[in-house]
User: Fold this.
Amino acid sequence: MPKSQVRKKKVYTPPTDVRPTATASTRKPSPVWLPLTAVALIVLGIGWLVVYYLSEQEYPVLSWGYWNLAVGFGAMVSSLILLSRWR
Assistant:
């Protein structure tokens, strides 16, 4: 049985308009305060919610009522926003 011919494949080169620019590859790393602040916000948010539930909704701020949940979850969401900027 005859052997089939092997084709030479061309090397793929992406179009020039799709290639990343030089500035995207030379970005600086994130500052040190960014991950520290994000972790602090996560801990603060979880701590706020734990205190709120364990104190039977009297602490951290009694007059805020269910807005204490918004504060706790808002701290955690803001930490996720910060972590999305982390390089």
About this structure: DSSP finds three helices and no strands in the chain. Helices lie at 22-25, 33-54, 67-84.
